Family with sequence similarity 49 member Bb (Pygocentrus nattereri), 341 residues
Amino acid sequence: ALCSSTVTDCSPSVSLILCYPVLQWSGPPWTVYMHFWIVVDAQPTEAERETWEEVDVVLQDARAILDELQAYKGAGQEIREAIQNPNDEALQDQAWAAVVPLVGKLKKFYEFSQRLEAALHSLLRALTNETYSDSMQHLEREQALAKQFAEILHFTLRFDELKMINPAIQNDFSYYRRTLNRMRINNVPAEGENEVNNELANRISLFYADATPMLKALSDGTTKFVSENKNLPIENTTDVLSTMASVCKVMLETPEYRSRFSSEATVSFCLRVMVGVIILYDYVHPVGAFAKSSKIDMKGCIKVLRDQPPNSVEGLLNALRYTTKHLNDESTAKTIKSMLQ
């Protein structure tokens, strides 16, 4: 049965809850009903409120982080002039003065990844505990938290998309580290070192060296959550992830639902969340998302991505190609591998 209520369009911060689609699973002959709906502004219940308020603070800051990253221009010109004129102290000073505040921003982004991981842990604790018998009950009865989980994934994929198309980030930080080391060797005081010392610089450098740093932080965080909560069946976590992936896929591939969105931003939101939960699932499930036994319909999800305008999803396809854990396993079907080539 299909829900008769109207599905309204929504902002990119909408939760990914779908209204009564019937999902036919391959394998055992049962039908899974999802009693979810799109909620523009899901309000937390009293049971959810403490976790919701904790995560909401992080999500409020997430929007500002994306704005700052999008506006990040870098110090490319100052760095080039300093490198081309190594004996010109004025140009060296100009480049350093340009880079130090930018490194402060990069430090802020890195530290935010740690806050995001902590928020993810809070949501996973709520959505995987034994309060309800299965993942669908959790997602139905804790809609506000499900929405926040989706928003974290949307932020993560969007952050990494912006980072990948901005080479200035790594160039600026590399110049900062080289200059800092040179100053140290020459016993020159470096005001910027108070902002980012050598030990922290090493950690930040590793963070930005990854093609998708926020996604890696979340993947590692999800893996850590599972390993630290051995009393919880791993299915509690993987079922939440696979259920959300299925909701996204059905939403995007079914004209009935897709046609009700007037905003492409909502489509992008759904696509990012779908890819995000696939990658997290692939990290924490023992055999990953691409195995035959996976509860995620990977062929269907990849087809949904392939059906979008190519320029709009290349970053998401690359995330599946290069940041998943099990794609290149021998057990992965050749058809799935070929779909991602």
Summary: The radius of gyration is 22 Å. Residues 89-128 form the longest helix (40 residues). DSSP finds 14 helices and two strands in the chain. Confidence is low (pLDDT under 50) at residues 1-40.
